[in-house]
Amino acid sequence: MKLIILILIYISIGLNAQSIIDDLDQIDPELKKYFPRWKVMEPDLQYQIYQYFNLTFNQNEKLDIQNIEVLAVPRTKRQIYGKAKYEILLVSCGEVSISGSRFVKDLESIYNILAGDIYSKNAFRYNNPNNPTSTSSDEIRNYAFKDIPVQAPVRPDQGAAIRDYLNPTNVNQALTLSLYDQTLKIGETGFWIQNKIGNDQIGYPYYTAGENKVILKRPLYINNDPATNKNTPYLINAYLGASYKITTGLEGSSSIFSWLPSRKLNTDPGGKLIFGMDVHMPFHPEAGIHINIEAPINSSDDLAIDPLKFGQTSMRPGVDFRRTDIRNGDSTFIPSGVMPILQTTGQITAFYNLWLNSKKAENYFRFDLGVSYNEVREYMYYTEEVDVNGDNVPEYVYKNMTTNAEGLTLYHPDEFADWLFAKVEYRNQAVFPFSVSLQYSNQIMLARAYMPLFGDWLLLEAKYATPMRDAYEYEIENFFIISPVIRITI
Q1: Which of 200, 262, 377, 401 is the most exposed place for a label (fewest CB within 10 A)?
Q2: Within 107-216, where are the H helices?
Q3: Which of 157, 163, 166, 173 has the alpha carbon at shortest distance from 458?
C-alpha cells in the first residue's frame, strides 16, 4: 500500500502536485525514507525557518533549530525549465511539519532557495569545492545541507511472508536452477516438481550421498483463512517421488568437480521410493509436523553390478562368505571389495515458521526439531572364476553383490545423538536477500547459506558438511561446495 502511495505522489508531481498535496502536513515515517531528504545546515536559513515555525505554530518545546529537514521530489527536465530542481513536499523543524504548498505561500523566497534557486548570501563560499564547510558538491542547492540516504523500496515478492525464498508460493510460476536442485512450480495448481542431488536431511549434500531424487509435491488441503493463507496457502502438502543411483563424485570419474574429494557412499542401486507430508496446524499454520520416508524398492542381494560405478571402502581382513553360502559346480567365488549402500532414511520433526513482522516480512526464522533415521549397509562384491570357452582357462568376471558374508557392518542409530534432528534457519528478504541455516542430523553438522549476486534472480549458494564424531570410512570429513542459483518468477 505504501508503494502505491509513493507511486501516486510521484505521478501527481508530474501532473499537478499542488492540487493534490496542498494539505499534506504529515507523511508516514516508513514512506519518508523512499523520498529525497536533506537537513538544512546553513545557519541563516536555519534561523529564519525556526522563527517562522515558532511564530506560526507556537510550539517551542517541539521545535529544534538543529533538526530542520526538507522532503522533496525531483522535477523532470521539462519541469525544471525556469524553476528550481525540486518540488518540496514537506518542511520539518523538530517534531513539527508543514506542507510545501503552505510553506511557499508564507515564505516563497526561502522555499525557492531550499528547492534549488540561487542563494545569494555567501553563494560563492558554498559553491567553492575547496570550502571544507560545504557538505555537498551539489551546485543547485548552493547552501550548506546534508543529504539523508534514500532507501530502495522492498519489492512486492520480497515483502511477502513466504516460507522458502528459492521456492516462492506467492507467484504463479517459479523456476530455480542450481547444482543441487532444479525446481519448477506448475502455474497456480500448487504442484511442484523437484530434481534434487544429495540427501541434506542426513547431512550428505550434493553427490556425497550418491543419489538423485525426483519429487512431486502436491497440495491436499487448502488454507481458507485469509489472515494466514498468503504465507501458508495449503495446510497439507504431500510428497511422492523416487531416488536413483548416480556415478558423480566417484574416484576417477571425469567431471569439472574432479578436484573435490571423491565419495565412497552409494545409494541403493535398485532405487528408493520417497514419501513425505507437511501438516500445518489449522489453528496456527506457522507450526506443523514434517514426515519423510525413503526406502529401497527391491532387495539388492545377488544383484549383478559393475564395480567401477560404485564407491568402495577398503577390503578388510575377515570379510568372507558365510558357511551357509552354496558353492556348487566348478566355479570359485573370490571376495573382491566392500561397498557401503545408503538404504532407508527418514525424519519426523516439528517445525515453526516465524516472521518477526509478518506485515513487512523481512526477517524470517524457521525451527525444526525431531528425530532422524538412516542406515548404511555394507555389501561385499565378489568375482567368479569361470571357464568361459571350455578350454580350462579360467577368467574372472565381476558378478554379484551380497550381504551373505562375514565381517560386514550395518550402520544405524544406536545412541541419542544419532537420532537427534535439529535445524535453525534465518532469512532476510529486504533489498539484499540472504539466508543462513545450521542443521544437526546423523551427528553431522550441515551449514548452508546463499546471497544475491545480481538482483533477486542470480544468487550464490554454499554448503558445508562435517561429522561431529569420528567419521565413518565412507564419509567425507569436510565437504564444501558452492553453486550459482538462477531464480525466475512470473
Answers
A1: 262
A2: 108-115, 123-127, 156-159
A3: 166
- pLDDT score of 335: 82
- DSSP letter assigned to residue 394: -
* Residues of the chain where predicted confidence (pLDDT) is lower than 50: 1-23, 81, 120-139, 157, 324-330
Q: Cβ of 12: how many Cβ atoms within 10 Å? A: 17
Q: Tell me which residue of 248, 251, 244, 250 sits closest to 267, measured CA to CA.
A: 244
Q: Three-state SS for 277?
A: strand
List phi, psi (to 5°) of 60.
Answer: -55, -35
Instruction: Select from 180, 155, 191, 190 the least CA-distant residue to 457.
Output: 155
pLDDT reported for residue 4? 47
End-to-end alpha carbon distance in the chain: 21
Please give the backbone phi and psi of residue 269, each rounded to the nearest 5 degrees, phi first: -65, -20
H-run or E-run covering 360? none
Give the residue carrying C-alpha cell 577398503: 314
Separation between Cα atoms, residue 61 and residue 82, nearest integer Å = 39
Backbone angles phi, psi at 487, to 5 degrees: -120, 115
DSSP conformational letter for 152: P
* Sign of the four-CA dihedral 174, 175, 181, 186: positive
Element (H, E) at 418: helix 416-419
How far are the Cα atoms of 14, 247, 310, 315, 388 from residue 302, in angstroms, in the given order? 79, 20, 15, 19, 20
Q: Which residues are CB-contacts of 209 (< 8 A; sequence separation ≥ 6)?
A: 198, 199, 202, 265, 267, 342
Phi and psi, residue 94, nearest 5° = 70, -120
**Angle (deg, nearest 10), helices 108-115 and 43-57:** 130
Cβ atoms of 464 and 180 closer than 8 Å: no
C-alpha cell, 306: 559393475
Cα(43)–Cα(119) distance, integer angstroms: 13
Q: What is the dihedral of CA 226, 232, 237, 243, to 10 degrees?
A: 160
Kindly give, in sequence order, each residue whose CB lies less than 8 Å from that of residue 353, ignoring residues fewer than 6 positions away: 163, 231, 232, 286, 287, 364, 365, 366
Residues paired with 38 in a beta bridge: 70, 147
Which residues, including other chains, have CB under 8 Å from residue 257's CB and lie 6 or more apart? 207, 248, 249, 481
